[in-house]
Structures
1.
Amino acid sequence: MGALLGIQPGDDIADLGAGHGWFSFPFARMVGSEGSVVALEIEPAVISLLEHQVRVTGQDNLRPVLSRPDSLMSEPGSLEWIFAAEVLGLVEGADARRARRGEPPLAPALFQDMRRSLAPGGTLVVSGVSPAFENLPRYASGAGRELGLWRKMLDAEGFQQLGSLEPFNGDFEVQIFRLSGEPPRDEDSLRSGG
Ligand SMILES: C[S@@+](CC[C@H](N)C(=O)[O-])C[C@H]1O[C@@H](n2cnc3c(N)ncnc32)[C@H](O)[C@@H]1O
């Protein structure tokens, strides 16, 4: 996916909800020693696993970070890419539970921090199993379901949708956003309309 989107050596990437590093490690190889990947996770056990993998592979441009659930834990304007694969649905679930407890939602702060952390021309990529996928497991609410709800928040933060991909016969969705008002970095590398 990284090659298709146009990840370049030297790019700085945040992988939100990195899990076992399914995307983080290939991305770290693609950006090389001049670039970096911050693998953000809220689960300490997953961070330990990622740290172990970093030690084993020597992939030292990959930094596992135990994150707050509403933060990219990054300097302002420091990222060319933010990837959110199979994670926004979990934030949505957390926000539903928080609402029942009368607590403020995470999502608005998270999208604000995405805007703050992206460099000019930076790109947000949201992916996950499509809601149209037959027998969609509950945990796999990926790109589509929650984006309908959060579209207003993305708009408010100035994100414009550039395109989408639908690999695996449409069972998987990848949606691509860039901050509006910024010059496109490499328009040709993004394929619109899947
Ligand atoms: C379904 S896994 C996806 C892993 C990986 N992105 C992938 O596509 O293979 C979702 C991960 O996101 C983490 N997570 C959930 N909410 C998060 C948040 N607000 N910030 C960072 N990580 C989060 C969970 O701990 C879990 O490991």
2.
Amino acid sequence: MSDEEVTVKAEEVEDLSKQKPTRRIIRPSELPPRTVTLKRPDIIGRLVESKAKKQERYPVYSNWASMMGSPCIRELFHHRVNWKFREMPDPEKQFLFEGGAWIEDKAYRDLQDAGFRIEAQGARFEIKDRKENITGKIDMRLIWERLTIPVEVKGLQMWDAEKLNSVHDFWESSKPWIKKYPCQLLLYMFAHGSEWGFFYVVNKLTMFPNVIWVNLYDHLDYVTERLETAILVNKCIKNPKLLDKQPNKGFNTDPDYCKNCDYFAVCGPPEAYEGAAIENDPEILKLLDTRGANEKAHRAFEQADRILKPKIREREFRCGDWIVTGKKGSRPKMVAHETERNVTWTARIKRIE
Ligand code: SF4
């Protein structure tokens, strides 16, 4: 009997979902018939959709310690005043960010398993003695020799994690978000009078951590300058004209930093500004608009293509209105200083006119 003959529609198959799993080994002849017409759920699509739904912007009532490492006063101002215009990460990136919480939990458990006393996961703090209005949270605290040592956990890509061994390495990073990390930890240390703190940096490839110790007194000038900046941000919120009186009118001088800024659109750095030259070419504008209008469809195309390609590799057939063909090829690959060739398959998918 061929597969075809035993094939039945999913609706016709007995509902096995309530059946208890058996511990007995089942013989192939006892298996229910194949259900090739099963309507498979779009699991990835639904996950992405659910992440997109959860993305929300919240009003910002204080200077966030995690933002205070920004070198741009306008960014700090927009974060408070124009939070509604903040660019949100793609749903795909949301998965990456949420992975950070998992790494933090793992660090907490790993440190406890190693016999360390860890407390106050996610402890909040505020600094407002001189109207700084700074709030934030620290990942956890380690109790050691009667000292309370703040710990900030960061999960980073291998190539970023490997470059970090001191606070200065954070500041010299090419990634704007990594540059901001020391400020958050130092502000917490300042708020709680903790001389020592450390970063627990997890390499996301190996999951192996690195510990980077920080002494508050080595960076007291930096902390003082950040506190003054927070006070200035509060003054600018009351009187936005103050921004124009800042050096370079408060605009950042690093084009790369601006390109990654969540407030680029609302800020609109000046025309002459290298990082944000204004382009008036109508063709480019039309292409950008077309690209934007098709962004969602493009993602759906890529997702289907990714699943489809392995299924049609080295196959030629007709399916519905589609003709699928392909071409075999090869490309070199280096294996232990020897060159081997990888067999490739370039699929061609055409709709029948
Ligand atoms: S776009 Fe540049 S100048 Fe404007 S807020 Fe962002 S970093 Fe600052």
